[in-house]
Amino acid sequence: QVVECLPRKLAAVRSLLFWALVYGYCGLCAAVHLLKLLWSIGRGPARTFRRAAREQPPACLSDPSLGTHCYVRIKDSGLRFHYVAAGERGKPLMLLLHGFPEFWYSWRHQLREFKSEYRVVALDLRGYGETDAPIHRENYKLDCLITDIKDILDSLGYSKCVLIGHDWGGMIAWLIAICYPEMVMKLIAINFPHPNVFTEYILRHPVQLFKSSFYYFFQIPRLPEFMFSINDFQALKHLFTSQSTGIGHRGCRLTTEDLEAYVYVFSQPGALSGPINHYRSIFSCLPLKHHMVNTPTLLLWGEKDAFMEVEMAEVTKIYVKNYFRLTILTEASHWLQQDQPDIVNKLIWTFLKEETKKKE
Questions:
Q1: Does 131 fall in a domain?
Q2: Is residue 331, in this structure, part of any structural domain at all?
Q3: How far apart are CA 262 and CA 238, in angstroms?
Q4: Residue 259 domain-assigned?
Q5: Could you list the residue range(s) of the whole structural domain that residue 236 is in?
Q6: Could you give the angle at which helices 256-266 and 223-241 cross, rounded to 10 degrees?
Q7: Where's the AB hydrolase-1 domain (predicted)?
Q8: What is the pLDDT of residue 18?
């Protein structure tokens, strides 16, 4: 009996240590950000709470060369999803899933590029942009996000697609390929490893734990949304433009209008809660029970990613039973499809056109 009880006790201890790490690090992150807030208020309270009025969207968000704005209501969930579609109906579907803090516009270079041969759809994920945002965090569990993509495909009249995901959208893309392999003709993940690789790495490597601190900070109610909004959304601007986390000096920098498009979308009332809620259930959903990928897969990675260790890209290949190609771009940032759009598009074209044979 003692031998039989030992595995259960070890599992309980591991679980206790895991949640102690999660909540302990949450507390540490909260303390750091509270100190940053106090420092900002001390330097200039008026500037800290200043926010510019943004009533009209920037013109780039209605650029007709990017495609048509469309909406679809999902029958089961009742949620209305917004997406931008380019290319003729009836062509093979290419579905694009953005990361945080992004929205459909992060795929502007790919909407223009691939519409010649695909029906390209750049989705606003649940809680983002013009897509409906349920209030409760339980509505953002990974199961719900996976079901969203399946329902979107059905609503668009497709049974399968080329699936491309960046950052958090990459996480969802991996999960779709794992749970619904028949839906994915080819999988392209950008700067996000296989979910199990990420889970193991974040727990065993202090550097990645530090780089992923925002995952823990986002577990705290309300404070993350507030911290993103102070100083007229300076934290949001900083992510895309700073030397440490932004698009690299050799990249295709965001224009002033591009940056304003991001700030406009996330400055709308309540617009930050949905995106941040995506992260508030992640620790109860990982690791995965089923994890092998049987779809031809391309993993693209910006070596200068400030949030993800590049070693995770190499480890990912053990989870892909089918054809797998990894390309790491030097001098490229986390925002890869915006940072190096010409190179990324060329690599995607090559992958789409080549015959991929399953591993023996």
A1: yes
A2: yes
A3: 12
A4: yes
A5: 51-353
A6: 170
A7: 92-337
A8: 63
The residue annotated as part of the active site, out of 83, 201, 334, 339, is 334
Does 167 qualify as catalytic in the annotation? Answer: yes
Whether 44 maps to a domain, the answer reads no
Answer yes or no: 291 catalytic: no
Question: Which of 98, 279, 319, 339 is an active site residue?
Answer: 279
**Where does 191-334 show beta strands of DSSP type E?**
297-302, 324-329
pTM of the model: 0.91
CA 189, distance to chain mean position in Å, is: 10
Question: Is residue 174 a contact partner of residue 165, using CB atoms and an 8 Å limit?
Answer: yes
Instruction: Per-residue pLDDT tens, the chain, 360 aa: give them.
Output: 545 566 667 766 766 666 676 667 677 777 877 788 788 888 878 777 788 888 899 999 999 999 999 999 999 899 999 999 999 999 999 999 999 999 999 999 999 999 999 999 999 999 999 999 999 999 999 999 999 999 999 999 999 999 999 999 999 999 999 999 999 999 999 999 999 999 888 878 888 888 888 888 898 899 999 999 999 999 999 999 999 999 977 788 899 999 999 999 999 999 999 999 999 888 766 666 668 999 999 999 999 999 999 999 999 999 999 999 999 999 899 999 999 999 999 999 999 998 776 665
Question: What CATH number does the domain containing 211 carry?
Answer: 3.40.50.1820
Q: How far is CA 209 from the centre of its chain?
A: 18
157 CA to centre of own chain: 25
User: What is the Rg, in whole angstroms, of the alpha carbon atoms belonging to the chain?
Assistant: 20
Query: Is residue 132 annotated as part of the catalytic site, yes or no?
Result: no
Distance CA 320, CA 256 (A): 40
Say if residues 125 and 98 touch (Cβ distance below 8 Å). Answer: yes
Q: Which of 167, 258, 305, 339 is catalytic?
A: 167
Question: Cα 214 from chain centroid?
Answer: 13
Q: Residue 281, Cβ neighbours under 10 Å: how many? A: 19
Distance of CA 290 to the CA centre of its chain: 21
The DSSP bridge partners found for residue 242 are none
> What one-letter code names the amino acid at 274?
G
Question: Total domain count for the chain?
Answer: 1
Which amino acid appears at position 17 of this protein?
A: L
